[in-house]
């Protein structure tokens, strides 16, 4: 059996038998974990084109530029569209994926490793992009269910614009995900949209969750944020149509 060139351990990982963790490339973990009751063993093998094998997390920890951290061979190749790519055969709990381009994930992890203060904000954007309302609310609350500030030092997570995602805000991301729940939530806590323009059920649900509108003085209305193409969240909604039909011109998504 091949071993990870970074840690020299077998290319396997132990996961809880009833767990969904490790099912995609972003959730891979090193097989350095110890055996646990009820755990099962699944593959964790990133086979690069240079021939080296890594655990996913070991590769993430070691990757810096275009070369393999172990053998120094160039990992980048050119796609049919003329863009850089890093192809590999990935074998994990989800099965074998051949010729998978992992450069976007490697670039994302490299950026966040060098900018650790942005990791929480980036995760918030990702939850908005996935339409995961429970995860978004979870980030707005602490373990006791009390509302917490979305400030991390001088970083305003609610108004963070993702440099790895075309400078999208959480509002852009939620619109793209077609999640009206997250959009209403963001409008409540990060905009100056008049409360009378919110549906009664939205305000009632916010009250149940203990979510209140913070003081907006001195803060940028999230509706004013533009992505790298200069688009407001309403511009994105107009392009998508669908669930956003009837929102144009209401002031909900642009100030």
Q: Keyphrases for this structure?
A:
255 residues, alpha+beta, Herpes Virus-1, Serine Threonine Protein Phosphatase 5, Tetratricopeptide repeat, 8 helices, 10 strands, 29% helix, 15% strand, elongated
How is the topology of this model organized?
Layout: E1 12-16, E2 39-43, E3 45-48, E4 53-54, H1 56-62, E5 77-78, E6 84-85, E7 87-92, E8 95-101, H2 103-114, H3 119-130, H4 133-140, E9 151-152, E10 155-156, H5 170-176, H6 180-190, H7 200-209, H8 233-240
Antiparallel strand pairs: 1-2, 3-4, 3-7, 5-6, 7-8, 9-10
Helix pairs in contact: 3-5, 5-6, 5-8
Brief description of this entry?
By secondary structure, the protein is of the alpha+beta class.
User: What are the low-pLDDT stretches, counting only 5+ consecutive residues below 50?
Assistant: 19-36, 143-148
CATH class of the largest domain: Mainly Alpha
Question: The CATH topology of the largest domain is what?
Answer: Serine Threonine Protein Phosphatase 5, Tetratricopeptide repeat
Q: Return the string of H and E elements.
A: EEEEHEEEEHHHEEHHHH
Helix content: 25-40%
**Spatial ordering of strands, largest sheet:** 4-3-7-8
Strand content: 5-15%
For the record, give the distance between the C-alpha atoms at the N and C termini, rounded to a whole number.
59 Å
Structural class: alpha+beta
Tell me which CATH architecture of the largest domain applies here. Alpha Horseshoe
- State the shape: elongated
Count the helices. How many? Answer: 8
Give Rg in angstroms.
Answer: 21 Å
| Integer count of domains | 2
Mean pLDDT: 86
Largest sheet geometry: 4 strands, antiparallel
The strand count comes to: 10
